[in-house]
Known about the structure:
This protein is an alpha/beta fold.
Amino acid sequence: MQALRSFTYIAVMLVSIVITALLMLSLRVFSKNAMYKLAQSWNSFSLWFLQFTCGLGYEVEGIENIPEHPGYIIFAKHQSAWETMGLQDIFKFPIAWILKRSLLWVPFFGWGLSLIKAIGINRSSGRQAIEQLKKLGRQRLEAGIKVMIFPEGTRVAPGKVGKFKIGGGVLAEYTGASIVPVAHNAGRYWHRRGLVKYPGTIKVLIGRAINTQGKTAREINREAYQWMVDAMRRIDANENS
């Protein structure tokens, strides 16, 4: 039964992504605000439908730690595809996601990402990728757009915290923007591999903004990494109690 519910969710999402992407392409010509509102509406619908079909919702602790003004970097745990919707719902548009450049080439889905100012990085280009991240990341932040990055660089199984890549720390050092760390356990219900979405409540923990002024990229990453380790221990301990 849960597999059927999950298949229904995926099928509806695929159709809705195509429709939403085409509408966003049309709205781009007339109003960026309307385009963002449409994207946010689709995002809210996708989470509602996930709860309706699969019984999977989420709850947030630390919502008061979200800065009132944009221009900050979000360091988020990465366990599944849920984050692309759940964290968007929590932090709201506009957000520039840091992601693999190849994702921008995916029909409809990638087009939508491009429209909302996602930053596609070619990870294999080394120093060039870092310079691109610094340049485009700074542009987004100065435009009042939040920047979302998965510092682990890839999805990591529940119960583990992957080594942080240097890119997020470099961007924070370069811009002086504060970092808002986010931990969650979405991977327990939405597995990294597998189509079935399991019922439950994803726990999301938002930490206090980390001041990056006068700190090196490695110092920034070290502080954020330690917060993530402690936060995930807390979430997992509560889950297992």
